[in-house]
Write a structure and sequence with these properties.
Elements: H1 2-15, H2 23-41, H3 45-50, H4 56-68, H5 75-96
Helix pairs in contact: 1-2, 1-5, 2-4
Amino acid sequence: MREHGRQAVAWAREAGSAWTDDPKTVAAVAHAVGQVGEAARRVSTATRAASADIAWAAIAGMRNRIYHQYGNLDAEILRETVARELPALLKRLDAMLR
């Protein structure tokens, strides 16, 4: 989960502020975000309960939107996810693993 989250953030940063204008970068970032959601779906019930402050269902829901409604993917929502949500999630995951 952390690896894919870091990839998504790094690829977006590397491509610059207009990364959502590049279909290849959008596809790569969306796939990495989708993999974060896939991993979130596999988090144990105990871990979910112990870290209830993490929006596990929303993370998995983003995965579903990416993989099942790809033609309707809103690049601005993806941008916000990568710019705000993923960095916060990565910090939280890092803290959990200390």
